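User: For documentation purposes, I need each entry recorded in a consistent format: the amino acid sequence on its own, followed directly by the corresponding structure tokens. There are two entries in this batch. Please keep commentary to a minimum and don't merge the entries.

Assistant: Recorded as requested. Entry 1:
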Amino acid sequence: MRKAAEFKLDDFLGETTLYDKKLTLEERKPKSWLKSISAFANGDGGILFFGISDEDELRGLQDVKRASEKISELIKERMDPIPKVSLKIYRRDGKDFIIVNVAAGMETPYYYVGDGSRIAFIRIGNESVPAGAVELKRLVMKGSKSTFDSLLSQYRLEDLDFSKLRATYRLRTGKKITVDDFISFGLADDNHVLTNAGVLLADESPMRHSRLFCTRWLGLDKASGLMEAWDDKEYSGSLLSLLQNGEEFIKNNTKMRWKKIADGRIDMPDYPERAALECLVNALIHRDYMELGSEVHIDIFDNRMEIYSPGGMFDGSLVQNLDTDLVASKRRNPIIADIFSRMKYMERRGSGFKKIKGDYQYAYNYRQDLAPKFQSTATSFFVTLYNLNYNVPAEKVAFGQEKVDFGSEKVDFGSEKVDFGSEKVDFDIILEQKHFSNITKQRIKALHDSIGSSKIFTRKKILEIMHLSPTYASNLIAKMKQIGIIEPVLGQGKGKYKFKIFGD
């Protein structure tokens, strides 16, 4: 037998949280330890120790050579497919130990086959448990190198509208999203069949379990009656609509403090805006859409905000047991994550945990006990953001719900009149010649891309598509009328418009 290497348990336990221990090799009950082999292979890999008690006592094995041969034999006989493992013998204080290192598998699910059963196991915390129907589907997708958002749906690109996506993409990137982009981004295939990602981004998404529930509770805990909630909203539809509606709900149900300083003022929001947005974006993007009958929740209390998302950590770990500064970014829905990254709602790389914590650490009223809290189970993820202004004395501080009036932008149209006549002029070129701010131009372009020149629209439609304040929507209409790029539609009622057609 090859000479055993010196064994130090701490060398291994310090490298991974995915491990299991067995005092002896149970040959007649191989399921007792092969379930861990299955769970490790179906997850991120792990280590199985033989010769160590549950209390970490180093007892050793009697016949280590025979035990190692039996382990290899039973893995080949009882596992399907056979996972990649490495088996090594170690010695310490005259005692022999076996360590089986199981690699993360690429051909999931890995089944234990025996006793008339065929079971795939997964790792939840420090236990190996049978995979349920939903978990088994996930393993099948993993083994086929696919994700839920990449699966083809029953809908075609032409079946659904994407005005919200087109407008938002134009607004945030300055570019139009084309049919070719839908295909290259993974929102549809070459035959224009939408993936689940594409369906989730449609205006009236038919994926009914894609919803957002928001509640502003009275006090510090959830109450039983509806009268105990100050505000309660339920949203469905496009992921972009859910995101924007969630942002608006948070802004409407939180406050901004501020205080004057010598050269200006310091803003002190209840919650750092970027941290709240990051949590909401991640809850929508990384949620497990295979968890039917569930939805993302925002619950705001006097002292905290809780955001719940269906689905635990993608790799099955428990976030509360991890150093969140070192957690690598793993995306359950990479296509959705990619399109949101393109629209600059999130970064392509890096962990959102550090960003959320960093935003809090730089906030004015931050204390260490107000650090964001992350918790997860096998099927749930929770973020708790603490109100930085709760129970903070209000001395020399001004309060208010800060609101931005986009309608205050002053534009001098003068006596300029535009007569396009029969001249063929591109819409974008016409708009670029106007003395508007860049944000106004981008919004007009995004609206034009979304609606086109043939459809009638109203102020209400602008509110739905652009997610603007009513004041700014009215102001936007006034500006477009002044420069002659829209015209009222007669005989259809008041307040209805169409874009003029140029370049024909």
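Entry 2:
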Amino acid sequence: MAALRIASLVPSLTELLVVLGLREHIVARTGFCIHPADAVRDIPKVGGTKDVNLAKLRRLAPSHVLVNVDENRLDTVQALREFVPEVIVTHPCAPQDNLALIDQLVAAFGALPGVAERAAACRHELAQELALMRTQTHPAQDVLYLIWREPWMSVARDTYISRMLAQVQWNTLPEVDGGAHGAARYPVVHGDEPWLADVQQVLLSSEPYAFGPQHVDAARALCPHARVRIVDGELISWYGARAAAGLRYLRELAA
């Protein structure tokens, strides 16, 4: 492990690496990898999740690169395999998948001192939150979770975000699956769909689009019978170290 050099091209995975005690081994991140701020500030940036600067990344000579099916492009991953010894592909699609994600990183880096112990603590906290969710009931609601505007974009039911919301019986509309990857996982909402009249809550995510109070009226016009709320997109959509806190946050929203 002496030559371990990790590049993370996924914000939530960068955060998880730091929590597992691997900060000193991270040699590259994206510009969206902003947490924990103090820990990542000095790590070189290699572009964004969709527009990775492969030439700069090659110069940093990573031994491992962490990618995600939803967040990174397939052609990027294929290019990485030409010069990176190990590309670790992740794809958590539900909160319970974080347990396997943690195990995946332990399999790669668990020989380093303290990593397995920190991972066990993360697993324990998450398992407790998932168990608590199973003991509680919440009124079922149909919700529209918006991640973008111009055009409006929502989430399919087989995405991580939708399955997080389902933990509190908030069922996302439209009632579609998007498949394993691709744009269909984040369907466009045109504004004339009949099911918009059935939406009980519109949730405006704080990221990737920075929805704010100025967008509430437009969202209310989209779904005139719905309650409109701005929600913390990082807590709902970031997997890894933030998943347990995300589940607690959802319980508070649903209370």
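Summary note for entry 2:
The domain at 6-132 is CATH 3.40.50.1980 (Rossmann fold).
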